Amino acid sequence: MFGLFRRKPKIVSCDALADFIDAQAAFIVQKGIYEYSRARAGHYSKVLFRESQFQQAVEVSRWRGFPLGLAMVAEVVDSALRRMVPGVSGVTAAVEATTLTVFDRYPVPAALGPYKWQMAREALVLRLAYLKLHGPKRAIDITGPYEKSYFDLMPIHEKLRKPDFPTLGNYLRVSMCNIYDEFTAQVDIPALSAEIAQMEPAPALASNS
């Protein structure tokens, strides 16, 4: 119980940044899937969550959604850092490379298979490459390009979820704002920016074949 009151560790390195991106991406994707499914099922949610077919569908949704979560959280982090350390070069490249190390921590999910997992990585590479093409965004403005993709992977029949697109969009926008606040509270700017400044540019976005 006392662990609830402990301060979260500072983000002092790219390894710590990777852990932050990993945890936040997994949380927002899974929380959205489970809470939306539970709300849609209503009184039948306990029955639904025990069905093996639904459990398999959730597993597919989780792993399809994880790269989307990584991309969104990476953009929050990148935008925050570019505002906080405008004089440090290589911030976006460091965020790109760090985010891909998170993806590569995980073996191929059985729910997707090698081909789909590789396609998910290539899509993530492309999304991360867009970061350098625009300036920092407000956290609330980041989710727009991701909302439909996230909505479409919900493990609920399409006819039942049609009216709920705005609700899930609001959930993602609020989540990004919360992640921004948490990141700016946890990051140790002098330590992290010093590590980023010393990093040599590398072909971090190469395909993981």
Overview of the structural elements:
The protein has one domain (13-188). It has 9 helices and no strands. The chain is globular and about 55 Å long. The longest helix is centred in the first third of the chain and has 33 residues, at 52-84. Helix content is 66%, strand content 0%. The N and C termini lie far apart (44 Å). It has 209 residues and is mostly helical. Mean pLDDT is 84; it is low at 1-5 and 202-207.
Shape: globular
Query: Which class of secondary structure composition applies to the elements?
Result: mainly alpha
Low-pLDDT regions: 1-5, 202-207
- Most strands sheet: none
Terminus-to-terminus distance: 44 Å
Oligomer: single chain
Order of helices and strands: HHHHHHHHH
Q: What's the number of domains?
A: 1
Helix percentage: 55-70%
Radius of gyration: 18 Å
Q: Tell me the β content.
A: under 5%
Number of strands: 0
- By DSSP (H or I, 4+ residues per run), the number of helices equals 9
Mean pLDDT over the residues: 84
What tags apply to this protein structure?
single chain; 209 residues; mainly alpha; 9 helices; disordered N terminus; disordered C terminus
Reconstruct the topology from this structure.
Elements (H helix, E strand, L loop, with lengths): L13 H28 L3 H6 L1 H33 L6 H13 L10 H16 L17 H6 L5 H4 L3 H22 L2 H10 L11
Helix pairs in contact: 1-3, 1-4, 1-8, 3-4, 3-5, 3-8
